[in-house]
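Subject: complex prediction, re-run

Hi both,

The earlier run crashed halfway through, so I resubmitted it with identical inputs.
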Amino acid sequence: MPEVYLDHYAAAQVLPEVAEAMQPLLRDDFGNPSSLHGWGDSARDALEDARLKVAALIGANPSEIIFTSGGTEANNMAVKGIAGAAKKKGNHLVISAIEHFSVMHSARTLEKSGFEVTAVGADEYGMVNPEEVREAIRPDTILVSVMTANGEVGTVQPIEEIAEIAKAKNVPFHTDAVAAGGSIPLDVNDLGVDALSLASDLMYGPKGVGALWVRKGLRIIPLLDGGVQEGGRRGGTENVPGIVGMGKAAEFAAELMDERAAHLSSMRDALIEKLPAAIPHLKLTGHPARRLPWNASFVVEFIEGEGMLLFLNMQGIAVSSGSACTSRALKGSHVLSACGIPAEVAQGSLLFSFGLDNKPEDVDYVLEVLPPIVQRLREMSPLYDKFIKSGGDSNSDVQ
Amino acid sequence: MTSSSNQGVIQIATYSETVMDHFMNPRNVGEIEDADGIGEVGNPVCGDMMTFYIKVDDDRLSDVKFKTFGCGAAIAVSSMVSEMAKGKTIDEALEIGRKDVADQLGGLPDNKMHCSNLGADALHKAIEDYQSKKKES
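This time it finished cleanly. Structure:
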């Protein structure tokens, strides 16, 4: 049986070169970058080299990169740290309704300590309207945070436009670029942002490493108090092997970005074109054009995601779903809901996230395996039954 | 990606073998055209919805069928309930509880005990429907 892994948004294999680059830091060059001896020197050199590479990926100044334990910490630090440092200036934040939980829940935590949060919505394609951000900004707004691209539906946001608006209103702008980092060209100066989060594991580096870039001059209070690592902005001995892995992964991502995007988007486009033809009552979620190269996300009407995942897994295909039943919290995806997708339709969510190891044949295999699974589950579904009895056509779309 | 180790089916949702068997090969799927009772529970918004159809002869459930929208557990629960209820008297069928169904399935994951374990409720509702129709006639 073929094994087709299409869940790279959840986890991806570390590149062999990345794993290789990490090895020496675990054994021979095990030193602490803060130590004033030879072992410390080699670890510090490796750390600073990684910082250069991560900075180069986003056109940033290396001294403005803070390494973290991942995208979640970077987002927590940005939201809580920038808001916390600006407390005297105001207590209002603007985020979007499709943010990752690490931004959204950080904002919720701030609400409990007296901040106010406005979450601007998204359209049916998962796009945030910059004008809505403009309207949401108040005199006491101290941070705007809108993600660069959403990993669940793939939509790439109009970051430059939002940045211009925030700048004109003199409000710092953070963007969560975890899903986008390494996949699409990002330059902090072209984007016009003030802070940007990245994660290593979304660019074929190891898990448990990320980075927050903060423009010089923007005040931020540490999330983790401790020693003076990372310029005093993040305490704790640095995860040198992980950081070196992230550096190597960022270097490859910058160098091979176009080539990778061409490979990924050809498979993405083939699936987006062919799947709706093979399965009636299936819709693309997210934006048809402004999309991450690896993301193909859909909702399949009248059935629920977990059943599809289980059957697909039995046939060797690994994907994700934003359905309530597949989430540990048993809540449906807030992103699909923000896109105006009715809750019962969102239950049939499927997310295919392509990776470098996928081949065009993988798309063919999905096209062969998925339609009978959908048919089988629909035959069991009382919703499908009602739809057919109410005169619905099993072969054509509802609209 | 090709890899030598298949990650296996069970790990994905920590379902028992019996749950997986009933999910993959559900018994009694369908509907009964001239059902004596129909019971519908759940809500697709929450993720699970079940419709049970029963046929009653001589106070016994001579046929039980169902349709279910929901996760693997919801489908397995429906299938198990239909199997447990078929052939039972009305009184016996009314005694089938949520816990009995979960036990027969070799257990359900904790987070699925409440939302997906609606099969017995749907069956009871179908029986109530039958009883109220009987009173009317």
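Confidence is low (pLDDT under 50) at residues 1-12 of chain B.

- K.
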